UniProtKB/TrEMBL annotation:
Organism annotation: Undibacterium luofuense
Signal sequence segment: none
Domain spans labelled Transglutaminase-like: 410-481
Pfam families: TgpA_N, Transglut_core
Name this polypeptide is given: DUF3488 domain-containing transglutaminase family protein
Highest taxon in the source lineage: Bacteria
Keyword rRNA processing assigned: no
UniProtKB keywords: Membrane, Transmembrane, Transmembrane helix
Stretches that traverse the bilayer: 16-46, 58-77, 108-126, 132-153, 165-184, 560-579
Thylakoid in keyword set: no
Length: 667
């Protein structure tokens, strides 16, 4: 028969509980750490469980030490240091897993539990989602239950009772948690962020444009930012979210020139005629870069506490420091506008430059069309007509490009995504002497009917062209709208058939809409979490305190308010504890008299015995007919002292005294 078929002893079940508790603290790190760390940690935890289930001894030091040294060597090879966030957290993951294999005293149990508590805290350096918060509560509950298990010296209560006790302890900590959350002084920037976070970029737009850059994002459904419109635009085709302007072309990729990166000020430097104002709030997800996004064209730079924003000469919104935490800001934008009709000679020269000896067919084609056109507008219309009449295809898979990528796109493949059309169109404009540049950002988005937030995803990434015309200045022209107009009025997934897992879901559910509604509810829930929990910063804290007539707030006053509230809570808890202790002292005088009576009957209570254990020994000594009052007394004593009840306290004490009287006078 297998060793695993035998029921677990108390020690084994406690060891299993400890191992599982520690695993719940390690598990959140599996989503960001490397495969060898996951494998090494999992191996140690499984090894520990196997030893418990089979009843084998823990490994000897000579066997465990080489394994620990191997894990530490892995940390050094991966990070070249044992310090810092990444290396330190990795060491904690491995050490807590190995610590479960090296336990010789009760002290080691405490070390493992408190290491797990600390490791659980470090998981918030990487993730603060609803899922991670829920997992943290479960882990704290199991770790607290494990910790309480080690406190018992005699009979250990069932697991359900220990879990219930842990739940009650956590519930009593909620008031302190709420005070800390709402009143602890908030500082600008991410509470859990570290300077090293800037080096860990997330998927999103780049500050350069190569063939395939944006098409790689088309299948990425991560949220880029959320928008709360104060007046929703009626025409979705105006939803161009301006991001990065690329005006330097080297023959292969488009980049932002040094001139375009220069800061300007809070308001657009060259907007003249403007109308169609749209007011909205943006919640921008962290992307580790300085650029911000706004509806084309923003009225002014947003006011972001702790991270001032400016507008560049190319009308980009830029933050002072990289966006390493979720940012909230408000904007007003014009959907109809004109730039200044004058263009600086240096700006004109920059936006007409092309590298020599590239795309000769495209150059010749542009020269021929230019000769046939009587104006810049007619030339632009001729290019767009060429895209329409030559049956170009809007696709994610245009194939690999060679040395003359634009020649191949325009005259051979005729397949591409938005960056291919924008790049070719801008090249054709510059070859004709018309200043042109590429703008990358997002186009469109989708309204979530659950919370009325407008969600812009990475799959909405888009590129278009701006050309300078004498009558209007810089003017947006989107050649993609000519090839695939449905892309401008719908999101990418709406405009294209489902692929991959989405196609499987559609086929299984016969195109029913409820999976989409589930996704919408989940997105709305995450948004509420981001807005009210993760988004609770310095500004919201000040607004909360001002609602209670706290004016001219600073860190010192906020700290005093938090300390005062916590102190008041602790004083209230102390008073409750004192009153409860008085009740227990009154009951203990009766219990002491009961124990003296039992000692006179020949059953003396040992110092370490609980009422339950004492009762079991009494049952083995006294006649059965005398046990009814004794059982009632001990049961009611425990209930009176610890369980709580709705009876009048004096009446309950009187009842307990009457039961003792019957026991003392029983013959």
């Amino acid at each position: 028969m297998s060793r695993f078929t035998n029921p677990l002893t108390q020690d084994k079940s406690n060891s299993v509980l400890l191992t599982i508790s520690c695993f719940t603290a390690v598990f959140p790190h599996f989503f960001h750490t490397t495969a060898w760390v996951i494998g090494g940690s999992s191996f140690a935890l499984i090894w520990r469980l196997w030893l418990v289930m089979t009843g084998r001894k823990l490994p000897a030091t000579l066997l465990l030490l080489p394994y620990v040294c191997l894990m530490m060597a892995g940390v050094w090879i991966s990070f070249h240091t044992f310090l810092g966030k990444e290396a330190g957290v990795t060491m904690l993951i491995l050490l807590i897993s190995c610590k479960l294999l090296e336990m010789h005293a009760k002290r080691d149990l405490y070390v493992a539990v408190f290491l797990a508590y600390f490791l659980l805290l470090t998981s918030y350096l990487y993730n603060q989602t609803i899922f991670s918060g829920t997992l943290s509560i479960l882990s704290v509950l199991l770790l607290t239950t494990s910790l309480s298990t080690f406190q018992y010296t005699s009979v250990i209560p069932p697991l359900s009772e220990r879990l219930s006790a842990s739940v009650r302890m956590l519930l009593t900590a909620i008031p302190v948690m709420l005070i800390g959350f709402f009143l602890f002084p908030r500082i600008p920037g991410p509470l859990w962020g570290l300077p090293s976070d800037e080096g860990h970029g997330k998927s999103g737009l780049s500050d350069s444009l190569n063939p395939g850059n944006i098409s790689d994002l088309a299948l990425n459904e991560d949220i880029a930012f959320r928008v709360k419109f104060h007046n929703y635009p009626k025409d979705k085709s105006v939803l161009y979210w301006r991001g990065i302007v690329l005006d330097d072309y080297d023959g292969r990729s488009w980049k932002a020139s040094a001139q375009s990166k220069a800061s300007t000020g809070q308001t657009p430097p060259s907007l003249t005629s403007k109308s169609g104002i749209i007011s909205y709030d943006i919640t921008l997800e962290p992307h580790q870069k300085k650029w911000l996004f706004g509806l084309d064209m923003p009225e002014s730079a947003p006011a972001i506490p702790g991270n001032p924003a400016l507008i560049t000469p190319n009308m980009e919104l830029r933050a002072n420091t990289p966006v390493i935490s979720r940012q909230h800001y408000s904007l007003r934008s014009y959907t109809a506008y004109h730039f200044s009709k004058n263009i600086d000679p240096a700006e004109r020269q920059l936006n007409t430059l092309l590298p020599h000896s590239t795309n000769p067919k495209t150059r010749l084609f542009a020269q021929q069309l230019r000769k046939q056109s009587t104006s810049d507008v007619q030339y632009i219309q001729a290019i767009l007509a060429y895209f329409t009449n030559q049956q170009f295809e809007y696709t994610l898979h245009p194939g690999k490009a060679g040395l003359h990528a634009i020649d191949e796109f325009l005259f051979v493949n005729k397949k591409g995504f938005c960056e291919h059309y924008a790049s070719a169109f801008t090249f054709l404009m510059r070859e004709a002497g018309i200043p042109a540049r590429i703008v990358t950002g997002y186009q469109g988005g989708m309204q979530n009917p659950i919370d009325d937030y407008f969600e812009v995803r990475q799959s909405d990434a888009h590129a278009w062209t701006e050309v300078w015309l004498p009558a209007t200045g810089w003017t947006r022209i989107d050649p993609t709208a000519t090839i695939a107009p449905e892309r401008i009025h719908q999101s990418f997934y709406q405009a294209n058939s489902a692929r991959g897992f989405a196609a499987v879901v559609s086929s299984v559910f016969q195109n029913q809409s409820w999976p989409q509604y589930v996704q919408m509810y989940w997105d709305a829930t995450n948004n509420e979490w981001n807005q009210w929990i993760l988004g609770y910063g310095q500004q919201k804290q000040e607004n909360l305190l001002r609602s209670f007539d706290f004016d001219q707030l600073d860190l010192q006053k906020t700290g005093i308010a938090a300390a005062s509230a916590a102190s008041a809570l602790f004083v209230a808890a102390a008073l409750i504890s004192v009153l409860r202790r008085r009740k227990q002292l009154n009951a203990e005088s009766l219990y002491k008299a009961f124990c003296e009576h039992m000692a006179a009957r020949g059953v003396a209570k040992a110092a370490h015995e609980s009422p339950t254990i004492f009762l079991e020994r009494i049952k083995q000594t006294l006649p059965k007919e005398e046990l009814h009052n004794i059982e009632e007394f001990l049961h009611y004593y425990s209930r009176y002292c610890y369980a709580g009840h709705n009876d009048n306290e004096q009446a309950s004490f009187t009842r307990l005294k009457n039961i003792l009287y019957r026991i003392q006078h029983e013959q």
